[in-house]
């Protein structure tokens, strides 16, 4: 569903591309914008005039140069032109954010999930949208969740919700009257970082997440890599240690068996002889407990091995690390680096690693970014 009142709707494909370039990289001087898009100055002037008239673009007045030259008037997008709602849906809570057009968070809220049937979940999501809409009606709503999503609306599989073939986008759009885009939560995070975050200045990057499971995403040539098996957790079963423990699927020494939060605190409980949480295991390791340190060091080394494998195969310019279990990378950074080093050629370039500390709003912002993308790119041909 598209919002016919959106200022993007009447734009031609060329005008939309100009506005998109400014949205992602502005403010931009007209000469720089023309160079980026390989347009002549007269063509750019003709294209930008209706964008200025419609308020999609505006001029940013800069002070005169020290030589007394005429001040430049770069073009920029007004980030307050539209607002967007993004929701991270978990099995126990829905975390919502309201953002502007550049995915800057303006407001947050959350509501508890008490029942997992589609009707009850949609009721909660509608409450989140209503709360976020108290002062500004969002142009569109994005929802991110762990699972396999098709056509930005159909939840083909979401194990944590026990859902199969639920058209969440349609149900929520009917309840809210707003366009809705549903996406895998890691895909949504990737798109947010690609347009507005740590992937904004590179053409390729990967993201690895550790938490309840192990996930991975990849952007190559400025496009998110997706396929028929996206969202089913394939990276979690990547083999790392043939002598390691088995995951619930029976894969010995796979990423899930070594890196998931459940695997780590379960192994620690067996070794320590008492129940411990994931954070308690990390606290013990950081405090010098030899048994906890051994478990954490092994997991961090395995994480480094996985990072190196992704780097060796995909050769991304940057790798982002996040997820609710990412504290592991802070507590055992040296062991993580050792895992990377043993699996990389000495001549290989140093890896550009960036750790994004986990927060539900990070993922909700990703969902909002997908809604922004679907709104802005609505009439662009997809190649």
From TrEMBL:
Entry-linked CDD domains: HTH_ARSR
Entry superkingdom: Bacteria
PROSITE patterns xrefs: ROK (PS01125)
Family: Belongs to the ROK (NagC/XylR) family.
Protein name: ROK family transcriptional regulator
Species per Swiss-Prot/TrEMBL record: Myceligenerans crystallogenes
């Amino acid at each position: 569903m598209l919002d016919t009142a959106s200022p993007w709707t009447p734009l031609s494909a060329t005008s939309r591309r100009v506005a998109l370039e400014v949205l992602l990289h502005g403010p931009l001087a007209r000469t720089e914008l023309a160079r980026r898009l390989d347009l002549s100055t007269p063509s750019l002037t003709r294209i930008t005039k209706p964008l200025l008239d419609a308020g999609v673009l505006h001029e940013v007045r800069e002070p005169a140069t020290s030589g007394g030259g005429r001040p430049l008037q770069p073009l920029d997008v007004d980030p307050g032109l539209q607002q967007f709602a993004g929701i991270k849906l978990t099995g126990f809570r829905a975390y919502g954010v309201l953002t502007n057009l550049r995915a800057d968070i303006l407001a947050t809220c959350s509501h508890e999930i008490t029942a997992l049937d589609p009707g009850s979940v949609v009721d909660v999501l509608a409450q989140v949208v209503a709360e976020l809409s108290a002062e500004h009606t969002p142009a569109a709503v994005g929802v991110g969740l762990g699972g396999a999503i098709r056509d930005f609306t159909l939840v083909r599989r979401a194990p944590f919700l026990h859902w199969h073939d639920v058209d969440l986008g349609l149900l929520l759009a009917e309840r809210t009257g707003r366009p809705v885009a549903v996406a895998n939560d890691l895909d949504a995070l990737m798109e947010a970082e690609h347009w507005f975050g740590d992937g904004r200045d590179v053409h390729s990057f990967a993201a690895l997440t550790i938490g309840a499971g192990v996930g991975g995403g990849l952007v190559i040539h400025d496009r998110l890599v997706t396929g028929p098996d996206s969202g089913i957790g394939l990276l979690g079963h990547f083999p790392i240690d043939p002598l390691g423990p088995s995951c619930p699927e029976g894969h010995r020494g796979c990423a899930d068996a070594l890196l998931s939060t459940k695997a780590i605190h379960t192994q620690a409980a067996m070794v320590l002889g008492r129940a411990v949480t994931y954070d308690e295991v990390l606290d013990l390791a950081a405090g010098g407990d030899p048994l906890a340190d051994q478990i954490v060091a092994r997991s961090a080394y395995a994480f480094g091995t996985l990072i190196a494998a992704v780097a060796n195969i995909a050769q991304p310019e940057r790798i982002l690390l996040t997820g609710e279990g990412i504290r592991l990378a802070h507590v055992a950074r040296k062991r993580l680096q050792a895992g990377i080093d043993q699996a990389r050629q000495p001549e290989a370039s140093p890896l550009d690693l960036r750790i994004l500390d986990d927060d539900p709003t990070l993922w909700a912002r990703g969902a909002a970014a997908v809604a922004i993308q679907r709104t802005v790119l609505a009439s662009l041909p997809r190649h």
